[in-house]
Amino acid sequence: MVQAWDHDPPGSDKLVPFGVLELTTGLLTLIFGTRECSDFWGDCMTLWWEGVRSRGVRRLVVYLDNGPRNSGVTRKFLRRMVQFADWSGLEVWLVYYPPYHSKYNPVERCRSSLQRKWNGVLLKCWNVVRVCALRMTWNGKHPSVQHIENPYDHEEPVTNAEMKQINARLQRSETLAKYHIIIKPLKPRGR
């Protein structure tokens, strides 16, 4: 039995969850990393896509909150999404919930299901987190659970010249420019 204090000191390691919920199939992928940043987001999307790319998808619609790491104006995030679109060959649609409305994003309900599975469990290592995550179900199915160990110590800044090239690739909605962005790959998938 693991002993714990009533108020544990901060852990030396931190795991950040990232979830991809495929609305058409109900399949959930959970990826844990050490730090939430734009590069982590990009790596998670790449890892997820490597596992599902055989399904014939050509367009990916990503529903997002408008957090500081993934907003439609965050340079590093937009760079990673353009890189992902080019690498995967997918047309990527970034669709944002208005401020304070992310509770309507179905993946947020997955997070509460996960929290119920590890409620009261001392999350002392990756193995314990993995087992708790594998125990949860969403729509009667267990999630795919993965781990990225990259510490993401340094992210390269996006220069103004690079941002100009990125902005040229973004198709923003005329009426909802901050909330609906389309990124077309340089070479579309399957063509």
Please give a handful of descriptors for the protein shown.
191 residues, alpha/beta, four-stranded mixed β-sheet, 5 helices, 7 strands, 32% helix, globular
How does this model look, in words?
Helix content is 32%, strand content 18%. By secondary structure, the chain is an alpha/beta fold. The protein has a single domain, classed as Nucleotidyltransferase, domain 5. Strands 3-4-7-6 form a four-stranded mixed β-sheet. A three-stranded mixed β-sheet has the order 1-2-5, with helices on both faces. Helix 1 packs parallel to helix 2 (75-88). The mean pLDDT is 89. InterPro entries: Transposase_36.
Protein topology:
Elements (H helix, E strand, L loop, with lengths): L15 E6 L6 E6 L4 H15 L6 E6 L10 H14 L2 E6 L9 H12 L8 H10 L8 E4 L12 H10 E3 L7 E4 L8
Parallel strand pairs: 2-5, 3-4
Antiparallel strand pairs: 1-2, 4-7, 6-7
Helix pairs in contact: 1-2
